[in-house]
## 1
Amino acid sequence: MTLNKHTWCIIMAGGLGSRFWPISRTDNPKQFIDVTGVGKSMLQLTFHRFEKICPRQNIVIVTGEQYADRVREQVPGLLPYQVLSEPLRRNTAPCVAYAAAVISQIDPMATLIVSPSDHAIFHEDKFIADIQQAVQTVALREWIITLGAQPLRPDTSYGYIQFNEKPSLPRALNLHKVVTFTEKPPLEMARQFIASGEFYWNAGIFVWQLSALRKAYEEHLPAIAESFFSLGLSTPWEELERVYSQCEAISIDNGIMEKAGNVHVMTASFGWSDVETWDSLYNVAKHDSNGNAIFSSNVFTYNTRNTLIVTPQNDNKTIVLEGLDGYIVAVNQDTIMVCNRKNEEMVFRFASDVELKKLIDNK
Amino acid sequence: MTLNKHTWCIIMAGGLGSRFWPISRTDNPKQFIDVTGVGKSMLQLTFHRFEKICPRQNIVIVTGEQYADRVREQVPGLLPYQVLSEPLRRNTAPCVAYAAAVISQIDPMATLIVSPSDHAIFHEDKFIADIQQAVQTVALREWIITLGAQPLRPDTSYGYIQFNEKPSLPRALNLHKVVTFTEKPPLEMARQFIASGEFYWNAGIFVWQLSALRKAYEEHLPAIAESFFSLGLSTPWEELERVYSQCEAISIDNGIMEKAGNVHVMTASFGWSDVETWDSLYNVAKHDSNGNAIFSSNVFTYNTRNTLIVTPQNDNKTIVLEGLDGYIVAVNQDTIMVCNRKNEEMVFRFASDVELKKLIDNK
């Protein structure tokens, strides 16, 4: 299969990933970690997936300045424009504008796939087919296609997309016009969304032509469009710092998707999870007959059920668990965490407590 | 205080310690481990305790051949006769006979304190006073004094000593003649023992003159007496192997104490635990306000109660526990164990399962 030279991918790899503590931390966020125990980091998995969709040199990774070396280490041999460092965190709208502006200098005819770097995709063949359908669809239309995943539970940490019942095209039953976007609804609302059957989870993957993207930015985020699309292929760092320090911090969902009238949602036929929390990893993982999800090579469980067990791939520690039901056991080089799955939001507190103690100990 | 040059101590340090898995194992049994997190191994604690009772050169450690180097490493500067290696495991009666035979070559007037190497003693000053009283008492009498600890619960893993209500001596109300020894009684029997008020736990510490010891062996274990007391100060290894391979494997409790008519029990005024199991360590440990016993410098607990947490002293791992009640969390360099305290006897199974997998993996 030849890859279309006008298909480009923007991978957003600037996340801090503190929800996955202790495996991911600010100095080692989730996208750089082999969360699912397959021997590749989330970023590597994402990159290799897109190598099957567009030419390797058409994949651009945007990340924080402090992570740029990490990106080049994990994906060796990238050209300079393929790793874009952001001087400041300004959410996703500036991030995508920056990458699109750089790509526009190389290929004004580009079709862009915008993707997070740290989500889990199951059934890669279906993912590739979906994305290709989206790319072909937007080639003929000034549409923004967003990928929507079938919601499995009333998760309040996800974005929800309400869609028009009528398919957008007579021959593409998996494409519907977007009616509303709702970020992180309260539980009762999430329940109603699911019960109605009119909502998808927002998978955070967008497909559109560069020209459509630019038009959308110019209409809905004119200040960002103006400062980013006037940048050249290689912008001096000071200039970039100036642009970022002056620009609004806003997500692409809030800044574009909620306002644009031409957004269509494509039903993902692949399996998807943002794997943003331990519990979401548990939910997407394979379970053994006791309901345990084990991402670790050397685990012995006894009377243990519904428990998620994660160690780094290269770690040879033996883990023996007896009498646990519904826990998260996460181990890295220097930390061991055992936490009831129901209380997984406490990892924020764990992380800050541990950091605080380190600060005090070092004083 | 000058130490009596005829007071000797035999420390039995040949245990395999598999009940403390994963911290202790056959290649690293409990006596060599800093179980209680004070920076010294159980053997070192025991040795230093006896240095306050008898001259350093009067302390003899008997251990398995494979552990002799470990002993010399942990207690440096010992003379050759102070570390006696046993070629085979033959329980405690041959072990004590061997050490007594060696000591008899140096000091026929010796008074002997026989002690395990891996028990926990609390209130060291009281321990020293008790032992000194016992030493003084046997100096004048051909008695065997065994130390008895007040039983705290119907523990079925301990030995029980039934004592005569009447004190053995008018002025020593803490000394009673022994009526029976019972090793590891069934639970119902242990309950009755405790209810009766006539029983102590057998702390496994014996005080007697060398001459009384020899007489007891000659009477109750004549074969062992004959082969061991004919040995010289430094026996060729082959000769020792021959003696051990031919001798009966029997405990000093079964072989001597249960049969001898001159055994008296002294009520220990110190705190004692054989610390033979995780739960016994939990029971003797200091508890925080949530009932947690923490032998670890870097532990964060949340909603966690009645849990024992042990890491090696020199280990800097951070341990975060949430939502555990009544567990054992034991961590060493290569293994992490979380086990319900109620099922702690399963550590035997864990150990063998882990060893088996290692064997299979290495094939």
## 2
Amino acid sequence: MTQNSPSRRELSLLRALLTRGGRKRSNCCRCEGVRAVEELLARRKDLVQFIVATRRGIDAMRCELPEVKILSEEEFSQYSDTLNSQGVIAVAEIPESPDTPVAGDFILALDQLNDPGNFGTISRTYRAIGGQELWYTKGSVDPWCDKAIRSGMGAQFSLNVRKFDDLRSLCDAAEKAGFQTIYIADPHKGESCFTAEKLFKKSVLVIGSEANGVSMFPENSRSVMIPMPGDYESLNAAQAATVLLLEYVRRNTQYI
Amino acid sequence: MTQNSPSRRELSLLRALLTRGGRKRSNCCRCEGVRAVEELLARRKDLVQFIVATRRGIDAMRCELPEVKILSEEEFSQYSDTLNSQGVIAVAEIPESPDTPVAGDFILALDQLNDPGNFGTISRTYRAIGGQELWYTKGSVDPWCDKAIRSGMGAQFSLNVRKFDDLRSLCDAAEKAGFQTIYIADPHKGESCFTAEKLFKKSVLVIGSEANGVSMFPENSRSVMIPMPGDYESLNAAQAATVLLLEYVRRNTQYI
């Protein structure tokens, strides 16, 4: 591991990447925190542009680090987006909409999901259950913003993240790739997620925005619900996603 | 609905209840927000001491209100614990450790769970799946603190909440009540939650602290895990609880 100081250009990029415009101009993002950087290095080392860290941040990392630019705690705090930083940020190229063919048993589609914490948590759970294709529509929070990457602990770097203009074009692309059944997660109606037969069989599972649900209902789409005994508030978006995604694990008995 | 101003004693109580000491002295708690107050009124109207609200808060309520003490928005903001208040707070007696017999198919036990948001979210999900007995150990966050009630949307008022000195005395009490099988949620080992046969058959399901897991392993307890395909970070405490609790719903086919 070689060490030196970050250049002025690098420091200015670090700050610019906190904005959507900054990320768009450079096609890079910030990946902050020990676990997120570990995930990035383990899975997509090729994307790393540079890493800045404090001595404390370097000590906390459990993996081999490439070149690191050192900052003092005080300097670092000016670039961190968290209250209690872990002392390490990587700048990485955004691997959005890769050229690779569509992989796996089903596509998880997030339609205008607004909250970066939810986007991150859902990405992380999807990665944890072995998901591969994370698709989303315009109007969602940026999956590559600081908070989404931190909440996801860098899971985004392990997924094929693809962006679409709207849910219709997303479903068209899925159909072309052989994923023909569209399931819309609904809080109140539809087939039970515990019995819906085609739920993970070359299908798309769509989760809509926290406040308004999905932006539209594609032709021939089906609704899938998590059955609940009472007439109570439904689960929030991240909880619902967790239950639906773990149902995939339950059905794949080799894991059980 | 009659309306007048809160007394000085009531306003001072409102503030005192933000502290654990204040709640202990008066055996009361604050229940803030439209949904939480609606839940309280629907389920345990008998506990309500008084309600303070702004005109806006009153308009937002979808149920019949008893007597309400009116505050201006400016006055209210001095007593609210949230940034964007909904303009209504009820003060209610704490219904802890009720005299009623232990009810239902299983007991959910939270052992030194620290985060009020997690405590609230788990309470809410447990209530939503028809759970009845929510037990917890000393060292947990106070279930009646402001944030736990807000996150729970008042679900605590619909549950039999009982406190124990430690996990051993909790398990002893459960055994006496006929709940003999103890399951400890474990991130890595144990029976699969999708197949563990006795999971909800007069059992106790224990969820430990976010950082350290359970405080001890009671004699003859079993571990139950959520199987995950990869070698990835486990789900957080609230996500794990959601999956385990929804497994109860899945097994009770009358709901599906």
## 3
Amino acid sequence: MNKESVSRLIDAAQGRIQCDLVIRNAQVADVCNKEVFKADVYILDGMIAGFDGCRKAKEEIDAAGRYLIPGFIDAHCHIESSHLSPSEFSDAVIPCGTTTVIADPHEICNVTGLDGMSYMLKASENIPLSVFLMFPSCVPATPFEHSGAILNAEEIAEYIDNPRVPGLGEMMNYPGVASADGTVMAKLEEAYKRNKNIDGHAPSITGPALDGYAAAGITTDHECETPEELHDKVRKGMYVMLREGTACKNVLQLLPGVTEKNSSRILFCTDDRQPQSIVRDGHVNYGVSLAIKNGLEPLTAIAMATLNAAICYHLSDRGMVAPRKRADLILAKDITNGITPEMVFIKGRKVAEEGRIIAKAPHTTPEHVSGRMDVKDFSKAKLSLKPGSDHVRVIDIIPGGVVTGNGDAWIRRGDDGEWIHENDKDILKLAVIERHHGTGNAATALIRGYGMKHGAVATSIAHDSHNIIVIGDNDDDMARAVEKLISIGGGITMFKDGRELGTHRLEIAGLMTDLPLAEVTKCLDDMHETAEKELGVNKAIDPFMTLCFMALPVIPSLKLTDCGLFDVDSFSFTEIGIKE
Amino acid sequence: MNKESVSRLIDAAQGRIQCDLVIRNAQVADVCNKEVFKADVYILDGMIAGFDGCRKAKEEIDAAGRYLIPGFIDAHCHIESSHLSPSEFSDAVIPCGTTTVIADPHEICNVTGLDGMSYMLKASENIPLSVFLMFPSCVPATPFEHSGAILNAEEIAEYIDNPRVPGLGEMMNYPGVASADGTVMAKLEEAYKRNKNIDGHAPSITGPALDGYAAAGITTDHECETPEELHDKVRKGMYVMLREGTACKNVLQLLPGVTEKNSSRILFCTDDRQPQSIVRDGHVNYGVSLAIKNGLEPLTAIAMATLNAAICYHLSDRGMVAPRKRADLILAKDITNGITPEMVFIKGRKVAEEGRIIAKAPHTTPEHVSGRMDVKDFSKAKLSLKPGSDHVRVIDIIPGGVVTGNGDAWIRRGDDGEWIHENDKDILKLAVIERHHGTGNAATALIRGYGMKHGAVATSIAHDSHNIIVIGDNDDDMARAVEKLISIGGGITMFKDGRELGTHRLEIAGLMTDLPLAEVTKCLDDMHETAEKELGVNKAIDPFMTLCFMALPVIPSLKLTDCGLFDVDSFSFTEIGIKE
């Protein structure tokens, strides 16, 4: 703010000039003392001016004793996981009370590199939701796959001075940090030089490895799974996030580790939330409500989702209901049993009411981020799978998470050595087809637990390199599904007996769409129903999300990249056929 | 840190390289979880590398179960009040466990302007104590007196980008902030532009005035006097400091307002601590110990004096015992009943033991900060006091503070109208002589309660403009005392019957000396004794500190500046003689 705008606030605080808006009779959540107080809250030029000393306002809203809460800050999320463009994401999460997000465009940058960063910055610049973008630190996520881009220290240096870039996104390469790898350190140094944040990603890392990770200046983690792990990370100086995503849900696991004494070091985040989760359950407010319902003091929970994130990311202009803070506010009837926003304000403007967006975000035409489909010589023949043995390694799906089992099975092979699908066994073929650089790479493997009886499902969302991944019992449907995605620039599609059963187009990088939330969820709901009823996919798993994580070589135990079957535990490639 | 030094820490944390020092068998104060844990703490290159994973160290210290605490951070102090140069101040406070100070060179800058700022930066640059300097926001403190310099936005802009300048020092001109005065706003804007801190000074300011003050972006206050005031300021988003200075002591007053829930918004500071207070009682550790003895949880108190201050001033490299933080550490036998440091470490080097400094700070020759004594035409005649009435206004000293009463008395006057001292009345003459610009200004007034029977006491410490202030029963001794200070460039001196009873020379700006702490306290102790025994000064007051605050026109109720008698309550000059 400049002195003129601050002078106006000072004048307004003391009743010398009129405010724009007053919210009367509110029970204000004071996240600094962690208590509630009754007040009229005055707003001028999008900022909170003050309380009792202000005299008049052009507009008045009677809170009638409802709670007035600072807007929620999502401390870490990937907008891409919503399948929505930033503008549609804004429309989707604001009604949930989220007014600021610290987003990591890790997915789109893994597909489109700096074009993705530029698009995300531009598309999120003039929308109601306040979006900060951490620069992705791990593009590619690992050297064991082909991503669409490689972003190193030079690229980081180009972008990290942007005031909307608070630092480096989640550093997943914890072996690289532990070994003080040169490329990793060069990336980190760009943040050191500017005293900017570095987000962490350190699942199950404790003890000396965690000391090394913390010594690298990484100050947050959202991958804790136990209260003990949370406690250890807090001790080492990190801010720990309670994550409540669609697949990864840690709030209830971690809650026993949160005390009033350490709560100032704890934040909330959503990480990856699917569109249906946002529509049905909410966004940050869902995690906050879950924590409150399970015994966390409401004011402590609210402080974690507001003030603490503002402190962690140096956002000194928000996070509390106090003079000179942004009037990013939530009005809610109750805070003692969860928080359902009735009205949401951003910079003093009412942007949502009763769960519906009012201030729709302006749309930005995606440029240079079309779904890259540089697939070389794809044909059905690329899906060939000849294990070399009847005894094979199998990726075992474990419902409720993204970790897989490293299983084995006995199969049948044809005279040509090709795997033969057996109806009485729940084993299917999985293939990953490289789509960024025309390498012609395609790799196949076997997977168990998906449940599908007949047909194929394919998607261009395949963490973290987002090549095309396809699952099926027959090569014809699989090939058609892959070809469909190539032709439309990415998305999710299903085929059975040569017939297209449903397609969800994701024309932005093969990850996101410009369609509005309602259409996206309608399409996905229909496709889920079809997947279950017509393809027979296991009800215990999400047919599409499960598939998305089968190519992620940083999560145990057995995964498939475009380069082959990968044993995460030994961090090396392996064979399908087991040599006896 | 650069990537090479971080890589070394990462290596050390995991035992790949040897550390410099290990402190074994410590009970480490974890200020993030607010609990104690047992560990060996390894240090490399002045930073904490880690705990169990480190293998060996060149040097080993056995803590034998003692507590290992992060070094204390004084969130606000004026080094000048110690009478010591920065190097001697370092030697004085480090044994108390203070390892970082946020100092405001408000006093020396009021005398010497930017030369004072430059000297303080230079003199504190290469000493063991880590010194940050807020740029003084109020030079002069008020327009009702002559200070040695005027520092405005242009001067702030020259210095505020220095990484050792975290922002603007205490904004005492709260009426100027409340009215959004142009000069004040121009100063504040220099901090806004750079997102730097602005310290506050808002005694008894609450309600709408406080909203306006907070709206100005002022984020700390160390002038709270009641738990209610603390609570209100925390609610408005400010960090509140528990101050324990020599004259102003707020820890016990404010403690009832500190709860576990709001403690993350509370810091400790010393503001003004005299050398004897440091020697006898300690520094930040004194306030911390007082709070603990009076019921504050030890870990909460420690977090307030370490982590909270680090967060408030964006000092991300300190404030906790964790990897990659500076090894600024205190070893102490006990934390449950106050904290007495046995050893103090700064950047991993043992700098004090058993209350004695080991790492003496290198001395910096003061340049351009000699005690400015540009006094025009001083003579005894300047001390003339002709009230114009027998009924006069009298400055009433109130022991135990710096506030005075606005009293009245009946006096005797000679034929020439001159005030005549009466032995049976405890009324003395007070004079302030301008010393910065040769204006020739001198003003006199009457003061009651000092107790001195005969003689004169003068000092060049006279907050905040630091002109010469002198008190006495006769003009001869008063004139000699003033002349003495002019001749030596400032200090404190006492005369009786033409004889010099003692002088404490303060050759740096008339405020500080290059002498070591022991000599300063010895000299002051002797002078205190003389003042009491030979001059008969009231035992209930400090003879010198009391005098220092009689020219401070921002503290009620009646004060004397070089421009005349000042009624602080009406914020205007007044007459000595009362017109009936």
